[in-house]
Amino acid sequence: MKKTLLFATAIACLFAMDANAAINQYVSVKGNYSFMDNQFKEKETETSAGQTDSYSEKISLDDNTWGASVAYGVKTGPIRTELELNWNDDADKNLEGDKVEVESNSVMLNAYYDIETGTKVTPYVGVGIGMAHNKVSAEDYNLSDNDFAWQVGVGTSVAITKSLDFDMGYRYKDNGSAKKTIKENEGGYSYSSKDRLDVTSHNVYAGFRYSF
To answer: Which residue among 56, 74, 131, 154 is least enclosed by CB atoms within 10 Å?
Structure first.
């Protein structure tokens, strides 16, 4: 909750700046290469005849994947705000002959601050909040959930024409998690299982932004 309020406040402040400046619309398309750091955690507890047994495991499901994004935004002075759709190829991992796949896509509301240099090159910083759909699946297993996502990054745009910019940069993204809890109680027997997938990534991207 604190994380959500922090980023929501930051974006609200950026929206409030330069409210009287001219508003320009734009669309953007980017390709990205993601260094995904996915962690799967499993914890089981079983109690029977007064005896309790516990089991826990942490599995790294990291992988490098390609992805793409499209966005529509508005620019007001040095501030840009946009709604962005992100898609990434599934991360694959072979564990003892079993193929495990991690899927994570998101919808983000981003805000950027352009650092005007008086040249065709414009550095910028950005933050974003949104919602991600995370899923991990194997031959006999499936876990999916929606969660809060956030990202921070830096980049640079280069003006090609008055309306077209080449855009490249880096951002760190946390797509939240997917969780599942199972509990069983019958007589003197009880069982509980907690599974959790955490999805984070380092992303480098490049693309084009067209203003109109």
So the answer is: 56
The two structure tokens encoding residue 49? 């005849």
The pair of structure tokens assigned to 47 is: 């109690």
Task: Answer yes or no: is pLDDT of 164 > 80.
Answer: yes
Domain ranges of the chain: 2-17+30-44+61-178+198-211
pLDDT in tens, 77-99: 999 999 999 999 999 988 877 89
Q: Rounded to whole angstroms, how far apart are CA atoms 211 and 74? A: 9
CA nearest 98: which of 139, 136, 63, 39?
A: 139
* Rounded Cα–Cα distance for residues 160 and 208 (Å): 10
Q: pTM to 2 decimals? A: 0.84
Comparing CA positions, the residue from 98, 99, 61, 57 lying closest to residue 194 is: 57
Residue closest to 174 by CA, chosen among 97, 111, 86: 86
Q: Which two tokens stand for residue 163?
A: 């309306």
Q: What is the CA radius of gyration of the chain?
A: 21
pLDDT at 140: 85
Instruction: For the domain covering 2-17+30-44+61-178+198-211, report its CATH number.
Output: 2.40.160.20
Which of the four pLDDT bands, split at 50, 70 and 90, describes residue 139? confident
Q: What angle do CA 92, 106, 168 make, to 5 degrees?
A: 85
**β-strands 23-48, 51-60 pairing:** antiparallel
Instruction: Find, among 40, 148, 56, the residue nearest to 95 by Cα.
Output: 40
Overall size of the chain counted in residues: 212
